[in-house]
Write a structure and sequence with these properties.
169 residues, 8 helices, globular, mainly alpha
Length: 169
């Protein structure tokens, strides 16, 4: 996690996760490690006056999304063929009883609709994971809150891709 040093700037501290390390690069920004990372990202963009979709913002956004994938991997692993990894993911998604086979776990995870940004943040904020009843509900929420996760980054993690849903406006 990152904290604030005596000057008010970000200072990485022991146990920092990938998202904390991402924000630690921007020393002038007063990062709150307990807030939702996406909210902190938008707040940081406003602080630095980066125009949405400018070349600078797009570059930083890609780094931020890479940090989210790394954070997911740090919490849940990346190997889609390890039963204990899949079972831990099922538990976090409140899938009970927890399936006892790799195939059953994958099928169960695919049946759950969560916003990936919120899911990763639940470890940081302590907020419960919100499960949507349908892809349509997830889609409306994702678009209204601008919490998109590009499939390019999600597909880079074999485990994370099981949470990826195709959302169309």
């Amino acid at each position: 996690m990152a904290g604030t040093n005596a000057t008010g700037a970000n200072a990485p501290i022991r146990g920092a996760g990938p998202i904390d390390l991402f924000f630690a690069r921007y020393h002038q920004f007063a990062y709150n490690p307990h807030a939702e990372s996406w909210s902190e990202y938008f707040r940081m963009c406003a602080f630095f006056r980066w125009n949405k979709r400018s070349k600078k913002e797009r570059k930083v956004r890609t780094l931020f999304q890479d940090a989210i994938v790394a954070e997911f991997g740090a919490h849940y692993g990346a190997d889609e063929n390890k039963l204990d990894t899949l079972q831990r993911l099922c538990e976090k998604l409140d899938i009970f009883p927890v399936p006892q086979s790799i195939t059953s776990c994958k099928k169960a995870v695919r049946s759950v609709h969560v916003n990936i940004m919120d899911f990763v943040d639940c470890e940081r904020t302590g907020n419960p994971v919100h499960k949507f009843r349908s892809v349509g509900q997830l889609q409306r929420y994702t678009f209204s809150h601008e919490k998109f996760f590009p499939k390019k980054q999600a597909k880079g993690s074999s485990l994370l891709r099981y949470l990826l849903r195709r959302l169309v406006r």
